[in-house]
């Protein structure tokens, strides 16, 4: 059982995203006769490869508001999601 089993009206996820930068790559060939195929650094804007965000230690990345009945499902969903982020993340449960 994960986050999917709860209804959409009972959870309020929010992503605290800082400014996100696009990573671009300028592919360069490395074989004989490549000088006819590529332009070097001329028009080297690159193609989008991915996105990245600069975060600091202790910054909140993701928060979920939910009812007490499904808090276990939300914690399990966050536990599974934290493996998708590099580094070390902690899940903190607060009650308001």
How would you summarize what this structure contains?
GO terms for molecular function: structural constituent of ribosome. The protein is built from 1 helix and 4 strands.
- Gyration radius, to the nearest Å? 21 Å
* Biggest sheet strand line-up: 1-4
Order of helices and strands: EEEEH
Rough outline: elongated
Low-confidence stretches: none
Query: What's the number of domains?
Result: 2
Number of strands: 4
Overall mean pLDDT: 79
Taking the alpha carbons of the first and last residues, their distance comes to 25 Å
Major sheet attributes = 2 strands, antiparallel
What is the overall number of helices? 1
Helicity level: 10-25%
Secondary-structure-based class equals alpha+beta
Strand proportion, as a percent range, falls in: 15-25%
What topology does this entry show?
Layout: E1 11-15, E2 20-25, E3 47-53, E4 62-66, H1 71-81
Family: Belongs to the universal ribosomal protein uL16 family.
Keywords: Ribonucleoprotein, Ribosomal protein
GO biological process, one term: translation
Give an overview of the whole structure.
One of its GO terms (cellular component) is ribosome. This is 60S ribosomal protein L10. One of its GO terms (biological process) is translation. The structure is a single chain. By secondary structure, the protein is α+β, with helices and mostly antiparallel strands. It has 2 domains: 58 residues, no CATH class; 36 residues, no CATH class. Helix content is 11%, strand content 24%. The chain has 1 helix and 4 strands; from the N terminus they run ββββα. The strands form 2 sheets. The protein has a two-stranded antiparallel ribbon. A two-stranded antiparallel sheet has the order 2-3. The longest helix has 11 residues. The mean pLDDT is 79.
